[in-house]
Amino acid sequence: APSLWPSQEAIARLTGVDPDLVTTMEEQVRLWLHDDLNTVNTFRVLLLYLERLGFYLPDFKGTDRVSSVARDLILQASYSSLCVGMRPSVVSAAALISVRKGKGLVPVWPVVLQVMTGYTDLFIPDLATCISFFDNILGRSSVAAAGDATAAGGGGG
């Protein structure tokens, strides 16, 4: 909540940066993000999805590769105008789906995440757009991959 954030003066005292410069930097960041401060939450949403899948458990050391690739995709999305304004949950879901498809993990969108998010159809426009974007980054055809994802998505998980 903005009321809990430190004042510009407090930031200036702690950093040694002029308060006017802090204000200017904040305005530039808000402008760049189109005032969508939810952007910073995309990584937290991904972490929540991974935790829900049990990736925090010691037996899941190999999944670090999944999470690191998904984080890289989300970072690349932050540089793209395609994902601006999309909900963090959609961007995170699409990144995780693309990575799970690429690694052959079935189902690509486990039931536990379907129930948690309400995303049971991978062809929801924003989700499908993000999946296609990430599939292109990973060098896959999203049309064939989307069909595979739907076929694999109905299982347990």
From TrEMBL:
InterPro entries: Cyclin-like_sf. It comes from the Eukaryota. This is Cyclin C-terminal domain-containing protein.
